[in-house]
């Protein structure tokens, strides 16, 4: 056998073996025999090795494809098991649990923050973290910035930037639908679209109000529900100001709709049906009592049965029915493993009607956010104009203020960080009103603070939304928002799509990770820019954020109630 044939046999025999020792022996054997080759044989050997190399190169793409398939299979399986990412992000394009986490309910993803380096991607010698920091920051269609990496939420869970982007854009799609129902009419034009107000059995509304004295253990709500639920007058603030409770919207709206010009007394003349069920008060009365979930759900179930006894309910399968709920959506969407709230909005009968809430569930199209009730209830256009002139001229002695309380039992809250940043400013540019001491119980304390401030910090509290956002706006104080669900994703009929016209957005993740000093950042906003925002708030937004007195006669302005009703009627036109 020639040297060339010997080398080929070595390659074919030894090369099929996988051990490192076999490869080493093969190399040594070939080197010894190669020295005995002629020039012709050496060329032939080179061609032989090139053919072997070509075969190996052909196998590389197949190997790469094989490893990619393994990677995608393993990552997809992990995602489905840990958080149903594929179902949520790509099939339904809904991340319901994302918002549940921010609202304090049970999350789907179960990846603890501690498994990540500084709340970012898992780090191997810092390489992955550097890759994250090098990514270009994403933003939603409305321009809400989404920093790269993973983001901390309540319960020690995280969401990726990709999940956030999909979820946020999903919400923005729904807000576009809501805005398409906006009416251009300043005054209600019935055009045969009558509004019928059901006369419900008293257990669904009036009897609930009668429990005002012991509904909440530490406060008697009865005074708050006087004067058509506006509360007692606040003389110090002037005409039209009352001590209105944050959960009085159901009563206020009911009082207003009874006097609506499109109201009809005959069901056959109606196109819109208002159901005055005080579901918020029903939930509130059980919050602090040890009762079963069956008790909490009982009145809502009774109402569903009552509605199904009405022929009008089946006219459009409930799509022409409207509810006003004076608490946040999550109080009516109790999870199976929770004792908080009721399941009223999870009932099958409640899926088609429109629900007007102070805080909507962002992935439910028929949940529509409307403003929290403020302390201001003007009776006339002059009341609004007088107040506008007062706050446009107000002496704003402080750059920043925050009225609220820390959340020491909520480690994900940014409130303590904001408080520390505020009180550490020695120049007095920031004022902190500690609500845990009862200092915020008086409306004049809040309104006067906001009237004297350029910016008002509005971090999330027990839920993303805050009544304080509307208190700051009607005081001419520019709200600083840290979570888009606080305002931008809630009130499409009352706040503009361009949030930069009336607010400053600072992502709460940047605050939580100590990447920004909020007070120092606000100092850099020019005075002219602040003035333009304030004028827009006072002259363009303010009238539409307040609920007028039930006896009000507004002609130049639309208040929050009028805007809501006109858009509900416009929605009916679109449905037809």
Structural account:
The chain crosses the membrane at residues 48-73. The chain has 576 residues and is of the alpha/beta class. Helices cover 41% and strands 11% of the residues. The chain contains 20 helices and 14 strands. The chain has helices at 3-14, 20-34, 39-83, 85-91, 96-102, 127-134, 161-180, 206-209, 226-229, 249-257, 279-287, 293-308, 381-392, 415-423, 443-451, 467-473, 508-512, 518-523, 527-541, 560-575; strands spanning 138-139, 145-146, 150-152, 158-160, 194-197, 270-275, 321-328, 354-359, 367-369, 398-404, 430-434, 453-458, 478-481, 504-505. The protein has a 5-stranded parallel sheet with strand order 5-6-7-8-9. Helix 1 (3-14) packs antiparallel against helix 2 (20-34) and helix 3 packs across helix 4.
Give the helices and strands, then pairings.
Elements: H1 3-14, H2 20-34, H3 39-83, H4 85-91, H5 96-102, H6 127-134, E1 138-139, E2 145-146, E3 150-152, E4 158-160, H7 161-180, E5 194-197, H8 206-209, H9 226-229, H10 249-257, E6 270-275, H11 279-287, H12 293-308, E7 321-328, E8 354-359, E9 367-369, H13 381-392, E10 398-404, H14 415-423, E11 430-434, H15 443-451, E12 453-458, H16 467-473, E13 478-481, E14 504-505, H17 508-512, H18 518-523, H19 527-541, H20 560-575
Parallel strand pairs: 5-6, 6-7, 7-8, 8-9, 10-11, 10-12, 12-13, 13-14
Antiparallel strand pairs: 1-2, 3-4
């Amino acid at each position: 056998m020639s040297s060339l044939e010997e080398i080929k046999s070595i390659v074919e025999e030894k090369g099929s073996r996988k051990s490192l020792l076999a490869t080493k022996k093969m190399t040594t054997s070939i080197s010894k025999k190669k020295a005995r080759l002629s020039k012709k044989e050496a060329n032939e050997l080179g061609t032989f090795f090139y053919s072997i190399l070509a075969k190996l190169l052909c196998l590389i793409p197949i190997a790469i494809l094989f490893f990619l398939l393994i990677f995608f299979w393993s990552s997809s399986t992990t995602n489905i098991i840990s958080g149903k990412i594929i179902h949520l992000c790509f099939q339904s394009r809904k991340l319901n649990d994302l918002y549940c986490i921010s609202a304090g309910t049970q999350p789907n993803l179960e990846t603890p923050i501690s498994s990540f380096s500084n709340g970012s991607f898992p780090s191997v010698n810092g390489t992955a973290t550097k890759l994250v920091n090098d990514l270009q920051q994403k933003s939603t269609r409305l321009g809400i910035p989404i920093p790269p990496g993973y983001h901390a939420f309540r319960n020690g869970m995280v969401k990726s930037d990709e999940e956030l982007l999909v979820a946020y854009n999903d919400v923005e799609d729904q807000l576009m639908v809501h805005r398409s129902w906006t009416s251009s009419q300043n005054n209600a034009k019935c055009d045969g679209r009558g509004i019928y107000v059901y006369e419900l059995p008293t257990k669904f509304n009036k009897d609930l109000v009668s429990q005002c004295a012991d509904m909440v253990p530490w406060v008697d709500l009865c005074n708050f529900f006087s004067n058509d639920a506006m509360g007692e007058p606040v003389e110090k603030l002037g005409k039209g100001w009352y001590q209105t409770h944050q959960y009085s919207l159901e009563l206020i709206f009911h009082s207003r709709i009874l006097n609506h010009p499109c109201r009809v007394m005959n069901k056959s003349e109606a196109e819109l049906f208002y159901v005055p069920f005080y579901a918020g008060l029903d939930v509130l009365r059980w919050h602090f009592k040890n009762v079963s979930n069956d008790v909490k759900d009982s009145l809502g179930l009774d109402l569903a049965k009552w509605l199904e006894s009405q022929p009008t309910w089946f006219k459009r399968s409930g799509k022409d029915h409207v509810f006003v709920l004076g608490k946040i959506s999550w109080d009516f969407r109790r999870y199976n493993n929770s004792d908080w709230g009721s399941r009223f909005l999870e009932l099958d009968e409640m899926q088609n009607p429109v629900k007007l809430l102070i805080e909507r569930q962002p992935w439910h199209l028929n949940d529509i956010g409307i403003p929290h009730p403020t302390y201001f209830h003007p009776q006339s256009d002059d009341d609004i104009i007088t107040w506008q002139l007062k706050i446009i001229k107000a002496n704003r002695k402080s750059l920043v203020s925050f009225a609220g309380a820390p959340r020491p039992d909520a480690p994900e809250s940014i409130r303590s960080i904001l408080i520390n940043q505020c009180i550490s400013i020695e120049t007095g540019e920031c004022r902190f009103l500690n609500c845990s001491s009862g200092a915020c119980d008086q409306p004049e304390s809040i309104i006067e603070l906001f009237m004297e401030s350029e910016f008002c910090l509005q971090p999330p509290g027990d839920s993303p939304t805050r009544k304080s956002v509307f208190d700051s706006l009607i005081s001419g104080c520019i709200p600083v928002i840290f979570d888009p669900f606080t305002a931008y994703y809630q009130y499409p009929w009352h706040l503009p799509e361009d949030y930069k016209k009336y607010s400053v957005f600072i992502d709460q993740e940047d605050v939580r990770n100590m990447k920004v000093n909020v007070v120092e950042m606000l100092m850099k906003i020019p005075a002219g820019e602040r003035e333009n925002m304030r004028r827009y708030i006072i002259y363009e937004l303010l009238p539409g954020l307040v609920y007028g007195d039930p006896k009000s006669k507004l002609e130049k302005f639309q208040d929050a109630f009028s805007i809501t009703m006109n858009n509900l009627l416009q929605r009916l036109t679109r449905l037809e």
